[in-house]
Amino acid sequence: MRRARGFSLVEVVITVAIVALLASIAAPLTETVVRRGKEQELKSALYRIRDAIDAYKLAADSGQIDKLADASGYPPTLRVLADGVRDVRNAEGRRIYFLRSIPRDPFAAPELPPEDTWGLRAYDSPPDNPRAGADVFDVFSLASGEGMNGVPYRQW
After folding, report:
1. DSSP notation for 6-63
2. How many distinct helices (H) and strands (E) make up the chain?
3. 138 within 8 A of 121, measured Cβ to Cβ
4. pLDDT digits (tens, 9 = 90+) for 111-138
């Protein structure tokens, strides 16, 4: 009579315990990787929007787009950056686009439209108390909490 081969109960229990230990170590690491990815996405979105705002201002100051005499030259809304504005130097009425689309804040609720995920700062508002106004001078994240670097998301 041959003896049956297989694993003993002790061997199975030890294997399951090792797998559980490895999984418990990997779970927090996965959370950190996801958070780091969102922070990288936030940083990239802020750079793109701010570059587009600066390009709009430069175009307004150089006379390439219409600007009211008493206006600051910054875009009135974020939507203008993606919808484009008429190039006054071009007789054909071509439009100048500063963004392909408005990036969204990765920490915001997914059901919100992208332009509603950002806090807006007008040209005439102070940096320590940003508020919306007649134009968009800067944007900031509305997310609560701090980044992995210890700086609150609102100050990025």
Report:
1. ---HHHHHHHHHHHHHHHHHHHHHHHHHHHHHHHHHHHHHHHHHHHHHHHHHHHHHTT
2. 2, 4
3. yes
4. 999 999 999 999 999 988 899 999 999 9
Interval 93-113: pLDDT, tens: 799 999 999 999 999 999 999
Q: Can you give the pLDDT at residue 95? A: 92
Structural domain containing residue 95: 41-144+151-155
Binning the chain into helix, strand and coil, the percentages to the nearest 5 are 40, 10, 50
In a domain, 28, yes or no: no
Residue 78 resides in a domain: yes
Are 75 and 139 within 8 A, CB to CB? no
d(CA 42, CA 44): 5
Q: Compute the distance between CA of residue 56 and CA of residue 79 in angstroms, rounded to an integer.
A: 12
Q: Is 3 inside any structural domain? A: no
Q: How many domains are contained in the chain?
A: 1
* Residues 119, 140 contacting (CB under 8 angstroms): yes
User: Tell me: the pLDDT tens digits for 14-59?
Assistant: 999 999 998 888 788 888 888 999 999 999 999 999 999 999 999 9
